[in-house]
Write a structure and sequence with these properties.
Structural class: alpha+beta
CATH architecture: Roll
Largest sheet: 3 strands, antiparallel
Number of strands: 5
Radius of gyration: 12 Å
CATH topology: SH3 type barrels
Strand order of the largest sheet: 2-4-3
Number of helices: 1
Length: 80
């Protein structure tokens, strides 16, 4: 999942948070739905990747899902 602000696009690298359907639940792993599948955002594994590694758009988050991801990122980055 792309977690970088649109303000910083386009760039040669972007910030992403991987997702997993098998990761254990945690307060810093919000659940989102992509293509009808519930998956966890691994906010603790945010990293930069080359844009050539980014695939097609898998969907958009609801406002509630986006708030959950924002809260998780604030927690793992120690910004709250």
């Amino acid at each position: 999942m792309l977690v970088q602000s649109d303000v910083f696009l386009p760039r040669s690298v972007v910030l992403i948070a991987p997702t997993s359907t098998k990761a254990k639940p945690a307060s810093f792993r919000p659940v989102i739905e992509l293509d009808g599948v519930r998956t966890k955002v691994l906010a603790e594994q945010v990293g930069a990747v080359d844009v050539s590694r980014i695939g097609n758009l898998a969907g958009r988050l609801s406002p509630e899902e986006l708030w959950g991801v924002d809260a998780a990122l604030l927690t793992v980055l120690g910004l709250n």
